[in-house]
Amino acid sequence: MTSAETQTEIAAAIIDAVQRASGPKPSISKEEALLQIAPHQLQSVLHEGFGDNNHDVLTSGLGASPGAAVGRIVLTADEAMMATDDVILVRDETSPADVHGMQVAAGILTTKGGLASHAAVVARGWGKPAVCGAENVQIETDHILINGERIEAGETLSIDGGSGEVIRGSLQTTKVDPIPELATLLTWADEFRDLTIRANADTASEAKIARNNGAEGIGLCRTEHMFLDEQRLPVIRRMILAETPEQEAEALNDLRESQYNDFVQLLEQMDGLPVTVRLLDPPLHEFLPNIDELIEGAARNELDEQGKALLAAAQQWRERNPMIGTRGVRLAWLKPGLYEMQTQALLDAIKNRISAGGEPSVEIMIPLTVSGQELAGIRQQIETVVEGHEALTSIKVGTMIETPRAALVADELAKHSDFFSFGTNDLTQLVFGFSRDDVESRIMGLYLEHELLDANPFERLDPTAVVELIRIGIERGRNTKPDLAVGVCGEHGGDPTSINLLAALGVDYVSCSPPRIPIARLAAAHATITASS
Ligand code: PEP
Ligand code: MG
Q1: Where in the chain are the domains?
Q2: Pocket of ligand 1, beta carbon within 6 A
Q3: Ligand 1: which residue has its CA nearest to atom 1?
Q4: Are 508 and 398 in contact (CB under 8 A)?
């Protein structure tokens, strides 16, 4: 079946289901209408594809962010920035240093990395098509090789971020016409579902898409993404390179000002709805230029003083296993000014919104916790900043549960948390010992082919071990605090099968990237209806 037929057929099925359940004499109930449409089917009516155009697929990667994109190949973020036409940014993997190019590219193709890699997560947040972990693509200086076939930089490529297909040349994309019956179906889904659906959104523009798609709050604002535009990156680099406490304080102050403005806009967009702001999480070296490129620059004697300082910092912060290194709450212990600065920026933004007549509702979230003492100390740090601000005592402070230890000591963590949010991307990585940046492009295909796993656990929540840890985490957390609110903000929050499992565990909300919210709304309704039948 071609995707054009699929799109037409699914649109027809939605129209039929809604019409049969409507009017004075409906032939089916709303529940039956809802169950006639599988949540994943919505993807093809929500996003562009390549329809039934005949095309030879050169290779496939992971369909990391749905939608179709066509553009000229560029190999660096800077080239993408300079382009005046549509481009596909092709990188081995992306990091915060590539974000300016990712923002302007029509689509993103990476040779490494999985569904929870930087490129995948960022692209999904923006609703930009991305194919990740296409390991048969090899990047050379001025061309790429796909299964040995040479394609020059500047030639046109078409990518389908839903199917993961990579096609040489320019394909016609299929336009997606809005279906009014889909809006009706989703309103019915909202009547039946118990789970709240929030969005993973980092900026006011993402929040707007989320709200339009029906999000009932933000479950995860990754604040590091606010540091990534061209003006901000040098400031956070100044903070990392600071040689004296004064220099560090000055850089933090500049970051506070820009973050304050971002928070004001975000809270305005989500006025009246809860916004969970996660304090800084990634390893600091992610804010530095790629170390290999710096080393190459040094070897060619091309680095100026700034370049040399960046190379020294990149070497200093380099870690063998950065995803289990100096990141998350550990950063807050290492550099106490960081979370204080973010909390202060947030407080100022809340005050601004209150004086403008708004109703900001903020939750502060601490990532990658492993112990009660570690969490208590940082909570204290946050409370010291908040202290004395009467109007702000409603701010909740909670933790992510994304290490196996956190799930097991959830009773301890709940003493210092107003809510839990399960970070199932990291939890899956740490339970399996699978690197979320590497395993999907190398090993996962092989494992699925040989049926060593039933499904990719980064896509579909592992129903055995990861689900068991979530169950334990919720049970122990609620033993300490019976009314503890529990959410899930890993990518599984947008996967229908995972949503069904999470609903059964007693989770209060799931949070997913804005484009997946309609799918999550329908999946949550299915979970309630099937559980009660
Ligand atoms: C997670 O680990 O599931 C999560 C939501 O955090 P991040 O993807 O930013 O590590
Ligand atoms: Mg995480």
Answers
A1: 196-236+244-287+329-515
A2: 116, 121, 220, 222, 281, 402, 423-426, 489-490
A3: 423
A4: no
Given a contact cutoff of 8 angstroms between Cβ atoms, the answer to whether 97 and 77 are in contact is yes
Known catalytic residues are: 118, 489
Residue pointed to by tokens 């300016």: 100
Residues around ion ligand 2, judged by CB within 5 A, are 402, 423, 426
**Closest listed residue to residue 226, CA positions, set 311, 360, 122:** 122
Q: Evaluate if pTM is beyond 0.85.
A: yes
Q: DSSP letter for 442, please.
A: I
**70 within 8 A of 156, measured Cβ to Cβ:** yes
Ligand 1 atom nearest 423 alpha carbon = 3
Q: How far apart are CA 287 and CA 331, in angstroms?
A: 14
The closest ligand to the CA of 428 turns out to be 1
Closest atom of ligand 1 relative to the 492 alpha carbon: 3
Q: Give the amino acid at 85.
A: D
- CB atoms under 10 Å from CB of 296, counted, come to 12
In total, the chain counts a number of residues equal to: 533
Ligand 1 atom with the smallest distance to the CA of 116 is: 8
Q: Name the stretches of the chain with pLDDT < 70.
A: 1-5, 52-53, 390-393
Tell me how far apart the alpha carbons of residues 108 and 77 are, in angstroms, rounded to a whole number: 10
The CATH fold of domain 196-236+244-287+329-515: TIM Barrel (3.20.20)
Rounded Cα distance between 277 and 363, Å, is 6
pLDDT tens per residue across span 288-298: 888 888 888 88
Cα-based distances in Å from 433 to 151, 404, 436? 36, 11, 9
Q: Which long-range contacts (CB under 8 A, 24 or more apart) does 413-417 make?
A: 413/369, 413/372, 413/375, 413/477, 414/476, 414/477, 414/478, 414/479, 414/480, 414/481, 414/484, 415/372, 415/376, 415/480, 415/481, 416/372, 416/375, 416/376, 416/379, 417/375, 417/477, 417/481, 417/484
User: Pick from 531, 521, 533, 481: which is nearest to 191 by CA?
Assistant: 521
List, for residues 410-423, the tens digit of each pLDDT value: 999 999 999 999 99
